[in-house]
Amino acid sequence: MSAKLKILVPVKRVLDHQVKPLVNAARDGVATQGCKFSINPFDDIAVEEALRLQAAAPGAVEATHAVSIGPTKAQEVLRNCLAKGIGSAALVETGEALEPLAVAKVLAEYVRQQGFNMVILGKQAIDDDSACTGQMLAALLGWPQATNACKVALDSSNGVSVTRETDSGEETVRAPVPLVITTDLRLNQPRYVGLSKLMKVKRTKIPVLTLEKDFKDVDVKSRLQTVSVDEPATKQPGVMLKDVDELVQKLSEAKLL
């Protein structure tokens, strides 16, 4: 590959996937008090893929960098990335939850500022399941995109081959760098980070940026309003029927026939 890759991996701090989310008292979001947070699982896969590309073609990858947009505590997620082997990290600190479009705008500006030519990120975050940040980022940058990647391979002609999952199976696409890739669950298995590696990066100073100072020209205004948040409707238990006649009777009583 002729052009050296500078890979950006955006990561998000979310409620741990093993925690069952509950609606808060105000019914405007999810209760987070005392809950465990961790890296978004799809973003963890993106981190692993960036490291695998670097290991497979060390001469082709110049740098790997993780960035998170969120509260101060998101530094824990970034240190986890550093412990796994990501070269550097930075936090865009904000106390408000940004919508996917605002996140894409901030990331696009960050890419321009730092000169990255590849972005690998999870196809969705498990807290809002929007699954559109990667696509909007590619549109804002004017870059090609390969979504739902289940296999990524570099070639010698400054291109990337991505096998992606579709509703009808798999398809392989090829695109030049610069490129945005979103990761699917079957792309890889993220590596385990031992305590010793976590301790080594515990005191690592992570640069902190702010929206007001470093992204003052980026419009992050909210365009959506949360009306209410409710638990899913409880499903009625199933009923065992004796025969087809009883089934027809039940369907008739429910006015489904």
TrEMBL record:
Keywords: Electron transport, Mitochondrion, Transport. Residues 27-218 form the Electron transfer flavoprotein alpha/beta-subunit N-terminal domain. It is found in: Mitochondrion matrix. One of its GO terms (cellular component) is mitochondrial matrix. GO terms for molecular function: electron transfer activity. Its cofactor is AMP; FAD. GO terms for biological process: amino acid catabolic process; fatty acid beta-oxidation using acyl-CoA dehydrogenase. The keyword Electron transport applies. Binds 1 AMP per subunit. InterPro entries: ETF_a/b_N, ETF_b, ETF_beta_N, Rossmann-like_a/b/a_fold. Belongs to the ETF beta-subunit/FixA family. Heterodimer of an alpha and a beta subunit. The electron transfer flavoprotein serves as a specific electron acceptor for several dehydrogenases, including five acyl-CoA dehydrogenases, glutaryl-CoA and sarcosine dehydrogenase. It transfers the electrons to the main mitochondrial respiratory chain via ETF-ubiquinone oxidoreductase (ETF dehydrogenase). This is Probable electron transfer flavoprotein subunit beta. It comes from Maudiozyma humilis.
